[in-house]
Automatic annotation (TrEMBL):
Protein name listed in UniProt: CoA-binding protein
Ranges of residues in domain CoA-binding: 14-111
UniProt xrefs under Gene3D superfamilies: NAD(P)-binding Rossmann-like Domain (3.40.50.720)
Spans traversing the lipid bilayer: none
Pfam families for the chain: CoA_binding_2
InterPro entries named in the record: CoA-bd, NAD(P)-bd_dom_sf
SUPFAM superfamilies tied to this protein: NAD(P)-binding Rossmann-fold domains
Family annotation (SMART domains): CoA_binding
Length: 173
């Protein structure tokens, strides 16, 4: 697969099928990108299991932190990697030992490892590299457009919000 660009339908298909996410490199520091991506995914109804060996046994946003993927108490649909590209082969090694295998390995912005991606894909796992699920979800759900970003139109008009859970979900485009 060409990982330089992704069709919106590929990303939307992933985000619509994933329910549980293991976040490798999750940080308890509220100014780190992994923290606010974790918070965002939780707010959208995803179940997120933080992975960080330095904080194992503690909590991030009320979720128990695990030392490694092998320590997870349940299967996950996606592994979201917030680590340097050089750490990806070892993480993919851990992913390939999981039973059942996750559906997706997602590498965050700036993270790419083509050889590790090819190994995951050979095992039937979808791969996304150098993308952020928070950004992609916002773009595909139309939330980014609410603030005028990516829409070409800025407006002070407040969007119409429904009662309860405030998410339009990811749309297939």
């Amino acid at each position: 697969m060409n990982h330089d660009t992704y069709d919106n339908s590929y990303i939307a298909g992933i985000l619509n099928s994933v329910k549980t996410v293991a976040m490798v490199g999750a940080s308890p520091n509220d100014v780190r990108p992994s923290y606010f991506v974790l918070k965002y995914l939780l707010s959208k109804g995803f179940s997120v299991l933080p992975i960080n060996p330095g904080h194992a046994g503690k909590e991030i946003l009320g979720r128990t932190v695990y030392a490694s993927l092998a320590d997870l108490p349940q299967p996950v649909d996606m592994v979201d990697i917030f680590r340097a590209s050089s750490a990806v082969p070892g993480i993919v090694d851990q992913v390939l030992k999981l039973d059942p295998l996750p559906k997706v390995v997602w590498m965050q912005l700036g993270v790419r490892h083509d050889e590790a991606a090819a190994r995951a894909e050979a095992a039937g796992i979808k791969v996304v590299m150098n993308r952020c699920p928070k950004i992609e979800y916002g773009k595909l759900s139309g939330e980014i457009g609410w603030t005028g970003v990516n829409s070409g139109v800025l407006s002070s008009k407040k969007p119409i919000m429904r009662q309860g859970f405030q998410s339009f979900g990811v749309r297939q485009k």
